Each structure stands twice: as structure tokens, then as C-alpha cells.
Amino acid sequence: MSVLVLAEIDNGALSPATARIVAAASRLGPVDLLVPGPQAAGAEAARIAGVAKVFTSAVEMRAESLAMLLSTLTMRYRYIVAGASSLGKDVMPRLAAMLDIQPVTDIVAIESPTRFVRPVYAGNALETVSDPQDRHVLTIRAAAFRPAAGDNDAPVEVLDAPAVSAAKLIATHRNESDIPDLPTARIVVAGGVSVGSREGFALVEKLASVLGAAIGATRAAVDAGYAPNDWQVGQTGKIIAPELYIAVGISGALQHLAGIQGARKIIAINKDAEAPLVRIADLALIGDLFEIVPQLIAELEKA
Ligand code: FAD
Q: Which family is this sequence assigned to (predicted)?
């Protein structure tokens, strides 16, 4: 019942999401990890608890090359698993087609070796899928699982990279920032359109900075130009699962809630005590955000 996991690589380094995917996949059997990146990332991956063996390869980070490399390894494994990330969504359907396996995607819970839970209808319902195939191609929502510990020392084997296809990766563009990564952050502070302006959103950013938190936004705030697109949380934005989610002036539309279901504790700051997000919050501060947030920042700065 062995499992092969494709590690998440972020800008050449091992992403913290990998330890979460390994923790989930360990429920299916002993895990081997394929790290498509530098050997330093492989060495870091070898420390993740539950990993029996690490393969590294200087393979090109493109779906065609990764699917080809995975397909050369898969005969040894009953499960081939990746994150439900842009990488996993690119590689795994291709691999599944090559292997003639129906993939099960976006898994948030593993009930048994052949029963998986996944959200449908933008997270408004959860469906349990029974997968009777002999071998399984799965993608996992990393944010739904706690990370595996980092006290391991698994052996590392270097694999040859497969011959590259005609297509070539020219460049990857990313925004450089010290702000924690939204999908894996411990604390997220997000703002809604009610902040009223780009300057108003700076209040949300200040609160996040004091807490060392990642910054999120609603689609309405993004559409209004108060926050960049890659801060959007929700059905058409990022899926997050922080220990603490602080929602500043956010109503809690269904499409927003679809992205925060994994949050463990929620604090809502809103002047409407009946707002949907206030109703599901563990703690609500009812009042004007322009009064509450500066007071919060001042108290936190004293601490
Ligand atoms: P509003 O709903 O307008 O809420 C503003 C809130 O601020 C209210 O609760 C109000 O009481 C409070 N408020 C106002 N002034 C103050 C103040 N001074 N102090 C304190 N509180 C105050 N949205 C997402 O967020 N993410 C998505 O991924 C997403 N995907 C979508 C996909 C589709 C196909 C569609 C149709 C919509 C999607 N939306 C998404 C939009 C979503 O439906 C909502 O419109 C949006 O989430 C609302 O954002 P908001 O909470 O900032 O604004």
C-alpha cells in the first residue's frame, strides 16, 4: 500500500505545504517523496516525519516533464498524491490520463484507503467519494491537514531528469515579499470593501504586520482596487487554514466562506451583529473598524 507524494516546490525551495500533504498521505501507507528541485530541498524533505525515502531530480518544473518522471516511478506505488495546488492541478490530470486512472481531487479528509471527502458547490457541501480502482491518483488540499513533524532522516536518491519535451519554461514571475504565504500562514488578517480606500486597507496591513500575519482580502476589496489580486481569499481566490483568522469589515458571503473553512478560530470585526461572518465567528467585535482596529494595533504594540 505504498504512496508516492509529489513535493510542493516554491521558488526552488520546499514549500511548507509538503509536510501537510505527507501527513495526509501517511494515512494511506508508507510515503516516498519525489522532490522536483535542488538537492537542498531534498535534504529538507528527508526530515519530514513519515517519509521512508526521498527522490530528487533536477527535472524541469513543467507538467509534461513532471508527469513523465512520475509515470516512470508509479508502477511501484498504489497511490500517487500531490497537493491540490496549481502544480498538482497541472500535473496530476495529465498523469492520470497517462495511467488511465480516474483521479480524485481536492481531498479534505481521508475516511479509509478508498473513501475520500472533497468539497463541492464552492465548499457549500462535502461529498464522500468511494474510489474502487486498484491504483489511485489523488490531489489533497494541504490546508485541511496539520503538518507532519520534522524529526526524520530518510535516505535520498538522485534520479535522472527525463528528456524534456519541445515546450520550454522561459520564466516564472512572483511578487517578492516578507509577508507570510496565505495558504500556509498561522494567522491571516483580511479586509473587506468597507475599508473604503487603498489607504483604508493599510490599516488591515498594519494589524497583520503587528501580528506577523498574512494579508487577505475579499473579492469586493480586490475589485475595488484596495488590495492585489493574489490576496483574494475564497472560492475564486486562495483557500486558507490558519490557526487564527481576523476578518475586518467582511460580510461573510458564501464565496468568501468557501475559502476559510479550515480556519481554527475566527475573530470578526464588523458593525453589523447579524453579518454571516459574525454569526460563525468564535469572537466578534461589533463596532466601527476605523475605531476598533487602531485600538487593537496600539494594544498589541504595547504588548
Ligand atoms: P460586503 O458584502 O459589502 O460587506 C461589507 C461588510 O462590512 C458588511 O458586513 C458591513 O456590515 C461591514 N462594514 C461596513 N462598514 C464597516 C465599518 N466601518 N466597520 C466595520 N464593519 C463595516 N468574494 C470573496 O471574498 N472571495 C471570492 O473568492 C469570491 N468569489 C466569487 C465568485 C463568484 C462567482 C461570485 C459571484 C462572487 C464571488 N465573491 C467572492 C464575491 C462575494 O459574493 C461578495 O460579494 C464579497 O465577498 C463581499 O465582500 P465584502 O465582505 O468585502 O463586502
A: Belongs to the ETF alpha-subunit/FixB family.
Q: pTM of this prediction?
A: 0.78
- How many angstroms separate the CA atoms of 260 and 280, rounded? 11
Q: Does residue 194 line the site of ligand 1, with CB under 6 A?
A: yes
Please give the grid coordinates belonging to residue 96: 492520470
Helix (H) or strand (E) run with residue 291 in it: helix 289-302
Cβ-in-10-Å burial (0-12, 13-18, 19+) of 106 comes to buried
How many angstroms is it from 193 CA to the middle of ligand 1? 6
ipTM above 0.90, yes or no: yes
- Tens digits of residue pLDDT in 204-233: 999 999 999 999 999 999 999 999 999 999
Among the listed residues 71, 39, 76, 79, the one whose alpha carbon sits nearest the alpha carbon of residue 55: 39
Instruction: Output the CA–CA distances (angstroms, integers) from residue 223 to 4, 54, 183, 193, 264, in the order listed.
Output: 40, 43, 21, 9, 27
Phi-psi region of 101 (alpha: psi -120 to 50; beta: other; left: phi over 0): beta
Q: Quote the CA–CA distance of 108 and 142 in Å, as a whole number.
A: 8
Determine the distance separating the centroid of ligand 1 and the alpha carbon of 252, expressed in angstroms.
6
Residue located nearest, by CA, to atom 51 of ligand 1: 250
Q: Is the C-beta atom of 256 inside 6 A of ligand 1?
A: yes
